[in-house]
Every structure is written in structure tokens, then in C-alpha cells.
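note to self: dont lose this again. the chain is below, predicted strucutre after it. 214 aa total, dont forget to put it in the shared folder this time
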Amino acid sequence: MNENRAVIEPNRSWTMEPDSRRQIVHWYDFICPFCYVSQDRDDFLIAQERDVVDLPFRAHPDIPPEGVQVGPRHGPTFRSVEAQARAAGLALNWPSRLPNSGMALGAAEWVRRNHPAVSRAFSKALFEAHFVLGEDLGDRATILRKAIQFGLNVAALYTVLEDGSALGWVRESEAMAHTHGVRGTPTWLYRGRLLTGARPIEEFSRFLQDAETP
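---
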């Protein structure tokens, strides 16, 4: 793994630079339930004085543009997610369909690059749209409505969604993730080490310690 940091600036793609000592890259997807219940992990890492960069990664890129219907969620995995949501104080209403998340992820990446002050709040709103409100993240109208709520430049966002720029950023992020061995979400990369899945907070403490051990 390359320990160089992925430095990402507004309106630019990333470049690799040697000062990587405190930056953590986090790949996520809005339709991933493990990402939804792990939102506070970034808060923990930031509290530990690390710089966290959230990047898009489609957990299911094969979902068609119109989305797919899904049935009831049963079994230990889903019960575990539900328990984690309750522990985190998050409402959880399993959606009846899964959208292709590329548009929502691309919009969030545009916000991160151009409006970093509201980036995490915007992403939280999109998570809530899917896992609480049952709104369709594959519908451009849903994305633009959220942008309006945050006072963002809707015309500019519409343009990057329409011309393919936003989806291009998602693909670039996924390509970068694959070079580091990332295969799913959520995944955190720090000093060449990966941590994947909805892990307990204490595992993040060990993750930081292990990555910083010479």
C-alpha cells in the first residue's frame, strides 16, 4: 500500500503527496447500511485529530438506473444493523427498493469539493433520505431538492449531474480505491492500512495505533 496521502482540493481531482501522517481516506455508499450506522466513526477519527476525506464508492454498481425492488430484511446481519442503528440513535426504515447510488454519490462529491462546510451535513441528509424517509436517491429531483435545502447552487449541481462530471468523479474514486485493495464499504485507509466494515469504536483506536506503530 502507498502511504502517500490523497490530497483533494475543490474542483480538482486528487494528487499524491508525501505528507500523509494524519489523513484518513474513507470510502462510503449511501445505500450501504453498514455505512449508515457507521457515520459517527468519522466523528471519532476527527476527535482524534485526524483529517478524514470521504470519497464515493458504489457498493452495487450493477444496479440499473431505475433501481431494483428488494424484499423484507431478515437474519442476523440485518438484526445486527438494526441494533447498531438503535445504539447510534438513528432511525431505520428498510427501503423497499435500492437505487443506483451513482448520482447521489456524485452530488455529494461535488458538494465536498465546492462547499466543504456543509459536506457532511449534506451527506447525512442523503443517508436519511434513503434509510428513513424512503426517498429515491436515483431521482435527480430528490438530489436537487436536498441541495435547495442547503442553499447550494442548484444550477451548477444540475450541470455536473447532467454532463457526466459527477459520475466521473465517482469512477475516479473507485479506481483509486481498487488500487489500495478496497472491495466494499465502508472502508478507511490510513498509512497504508485498511479497516473495513461497521466496526466498534474500540477497533478504530487499535487501527490508529497499529498504523502508527513503526
